[in-house]
Amino acid sequence: MQALLGVGGFILFMGYGILQIVAGYVGIDFHFGAVWAGVAIVAALMFRFTLPITIGAFFGAMDVWDWHWGFAALFAAPGLAFLIPGVILSIIEGVKK
User: What integer pLDDT is reported at residue 82 of this predicted model?
Assistant: First the structure.
């Protein structure tokens, strides 16, 4: 039973991640074009720089999918919840050197 919950959680987590990447692509494509959306996807996958995808997911949900801004923020907020502490830690590590 525990393995089934783990597999189910993994599938849900991956599905949410793919949905957020799709929303990010759609949002960036809507505002800046397909080329920049592709650049953001490549940057996210190759360099682990997910800020453009997170912001694009917010605008994709809000502007393209016509979600209320509060629901769009809740959709994109988990990415920001992990990104902001990482940026702060990087800044602190840079200052310590």
Answer: 76
